[in-house]
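User: Here's a chain of 146 residues. Predict its fold as tokens.
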Amino acid sequence: MGNICGGNHQSLSDRKASRASSGGKGSKKSHRPPRNCTSGVKRLVKPRWKSQERLTKAELEEKRVVFWDTQPHYGGSKVIWDAIKAAAEADLPTACLILESAGVIIAEEDMRVCYDERGCRYDLPVFVLSDPDNLAADSIPTISEE
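Assistant: Prediction complete.
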């Protein structure tokens, strides 16, 4: 999981300017993913998945904390990482608003792949986006007093 952001990515405005100078609408093949949730092209959904090892809620939260603490150090913008984290933890309508206002481009409807406006790619594991279907109940230790 990570961020892929090379130096040879064109920004969105550079691509538009390049397309306009090369004849405009004649070169309409854009590889750019759909921009936002309200465009009608993509609909944001929480991914459904099963963990190979049964995780408790506490174990899942620990994995999430480790991911969010370390992932921004591999590249990309801290502002974008913060927006993606806020969106991952929010309800779907709020997530759409957060992503749109931060300029995050959603490439997968479940948010596993996103881009910023500079073309940097942000890959997210499913465990930060939703709970697994087979989430184990946290064991509550009982104290038996005699």
